[in-house]
Structure formats: C-alpha cells, structure tokens
Amino acid sequence: MSDKKKILTGLQPTGSITLGNYIGAIKQVVKYQEMYDSYIFIADLHAITIPQDPVQLKENIRSLLNIYVACGIDPNKNKIFVQSDNEYHCNISWLLECNTYYGELSRMTQFKDKSKKNQNFTSGLLTYPVLMAADILTYDVDYVPVGGDQKQHVELARDIAERFNNKFGETFKMSEPLISKEGTKIMDLQDPTKKMSKSAENKKGVILLLDDVEVIRKKIMSATTDSEMSVKYDPENKPGISNLLNIYISLTGKTIEEAEEQFAGSNYGEFKKEVANVVIKEVSKIQAKYNELVQTNAIEEILNNGRDYVVPIAKQKYELMKQKMGLGR
Ligand code: AMP
Ligand code: TRP
C-alpha cells in the first residue's frame, strides 16, 4: 500500500475537449498524478440525469477516455474506470439516499438551476449529489479536486458521511474538496472577453484538441488582437494578445516576462505564427497518441484493470454498510 494521499475525481462525458479544458483542467490532473494516489472515472451515470442519446453517449465515453490517456493521464498512476462498470456505486447510493433529507437535496444550487430550466426533470437530477457522495465515500479519499460549482456537492458528501458515522459507527472518511486556485482561463480567440467554450456558436474562436492542425493554425492566425504593435501582457486593454500569451506560456513553461522579451521586436503575425507552432506541436503529439489508442483498443485493458481494482473495494464498503444498517439475512 502506498502512503500517498488519495484523490478522486469524476468527469462527465460531454463531447469535444477544447484547448481551454486541456490547459485549465487536464494538465492539472496530470500534475496531481505525481503527488497522489489518483482515482479518475467517467461519470456516465451522472450524465444520464439529463437526457442523452445512447449512441452519442457511448461514443463520448470512449473518445473522452482515449483523449485523457493521450493527454498524459497515466493508467499506471491512476485507477481509471467507468462509473457504471462498478455497480456498487448505485447500491451504496441507495443506502446513502435513505440517510439524506429531501430538503438538503432540493436546496442544492445546481438542482435549483437545472430543474428551473426543464419542467419535466427526473428524480435523478435531485438525487445526483447522493450518487456523487457514493463515488467519493466508497474509496475513503482525502481530496476531491473539483471546480467551484461542485464544491457544495462535496460538502454535502461530508454531511452525509458524518451523519452516517454518528448513527451507525465509523464507516466513512471525511473527504475535502480541492479547489484549484483560479487557473489560467483560456479565452475565445474571436471574442477574447469570453471563455473558450465548446458550446460557443462561432467555432472559429475555439480550438478543439481533435481539430485538424491546419485548421488550428488558421484559427490562431485570425485571432482577434488590437491596433497596437506590442506583444505585452495586459488582459484589460489587450485581451487578445494576453490570451495568446497565456496559451504560449502554458504550453512552453516560460514566464510572461520571458515571453514578452522574446517577442519584443516581433509583429503580431510573427508572434501568432510562433503561438500556432507551439500549439500544433503539443496537439500533434496528443493526436498521434489518440489515433494510436483508437486503433489498438488499449483502453479496454486499462478499463478492465481499473474496474478490477475498484470493484472489490466498493463491495467491501457496501457489505460494511449493510452490516451496520442491519440489512440482509
Ligand atoms: P467544462 O467543459 O465547462 O465542463 O469544464 C471542464 C473543466 O475544464 C473545468 O475544470 C473547467 O474549469 C475547465 N475549463 C473549461 N473551459 C476552460 C477554459 N476556457 N480555460 C480554462 N479552463 C477551462
Ligand atoms: N458532478 C461532477 C461534475 O459534473 C462529476 C462527478 C461525479 C464527480 N462524481 C464525482 C466529481 C465525484 C468529483 C467526485 O463535474
């Protein structure tokens, strides 16, 4: 057994990955895998709390897993699995549901937002945070890296754990949310005051990791800049140039000062060309790995290993809960 602290995070299988996701989220996970005993799973059971097309969902799950591995999430350093491959998550979730109040769930911000948008929301949308608590509490993890919008759910998992421990005796570890400091936010290349997002209407400002590299070059070369002539970091007055600088330093590891100095005499065309080269170099590596993974079906073995590792742990937790609650024969 390793004495490293444990982290766990779930990712919803929701389609195309952008350069923003890569720089803002995936690179973080790649960093964490060096420090922590990491569990990472595709939260397909969470995805169906809103309607999904079955064919599309299956495709998203596989493609996302291949992208993550291609981006450097290492199957030897992470337990990588698909949530629905471990049926104990749902079993544990039910036992936890019977120890969670309707009032708590109906007060969750995300539930309030999403249920307002759709009159016919499912009960899964309401109980979603309990399933998330099951994901977390099953593995006695120390930290749960999530975005700010999920913090409330991790706190609810703590409340549920504490209540269960008090009622039935010590069963769960209290996990803490790990909210990364405001990381680099990559902006839309066409409108650099907006976050780069896969749901943007105009795709010219959004780089997808699986975009053809020549398309990427065009997108960067036609990025919005300003009427000055200096490559300087000034997000307020020069959002376009500052965004390109952010992309550049995130991928090269240079500092802003080093980059400013490097491009001191350059015009915007030269600067963009260099940014495009750096992005293409990184993305090409990812795409090559991705194409290789897709062909070899390596993901099968990775997921089988992940499942075989996590199922016995979850079974043990489930049996412990049943015993504490007086369930079964
Ligand atoms: P989303 O695609 O919005 O569900 O976000 C998934 C993860 O990627 C979250 O951790 C976000 O913080 C991160 N992310 C999404 N878009 C960007 C962006 N433009 N810049 C930096 N991080 C981002
Ligand atoms: N709800 C999370 C999201 O939408 C995904 C998720 C499901 C998760 N289970 C989790 C994240 C457990 C962390 C831990 O982003």
Architecture blueprint of SSEs:
Elements: E1 6-11, H1 19-35, E2 37-42, H2 44-47, H3 54-70, E3 78-82, H4 88-97, H5 102-106, H6 109-117, H7 123-137, E4 143-145, H8 151-168, E5 176-178, H9 213-221, H10 239-252, H11 256-262, H12 268-296, H13 298-325
Helix pairs in contact: 3-12, 4-7, 4-13, 7-8, 9-12, 10-12
The structure holds adenosine monophosphate and tryptophan (TRP).
Short description:
This protein is mostly helical and 329 residues long. It contains 13 helices and five strands. The structure holds adenosine monophosphate (AMP) and tryptophan.
Report on the structure:
Helix content is 55%, strand content 7%. It has 329 residues and is mainly alpha-helical. The protein has two domains: 6-184 and 297-325, Rossmann fold (3-Layer(aba) Sandwich); 203-290, Tyrosyl-Transfer RNA Synthetase. Strand 1 (6-11), helix 1 (19-35) and strand 2 form a beta-alpha-beta unit. The longest helix has 29 residues, at 268-296. The radius of gyration is 22 Å and the shape is elongated. Adenosine monophosphate (AMP) is lined by residues 20-21, 23-25, 147, 185-186, 195-197.
Q: What is the CATH C-level name of the largest domain?
A: Alpha Beta
Query: What is the terminal separation in angstroms?
Result: 33 Å
Largest sheet: 3 strands, parallel
Using only CA atoms, what is the Rg?
22 Å
CATH superfamily of the largest domain: HUPs
Poorly predicted segments: none
Quickly count the helices: 13
- Along the chain, the helix and strand elements come as EHEHHEHHHHEHEHHHHH
Lateral arrangement of strands in the main beta sheet: 1-2-3
Structural class: mainly alpha
CATH architectural grouping of the largest domain? 3-Layer(aba) Sandwich
Helix content class: 55-70%
The domain count comes to 2
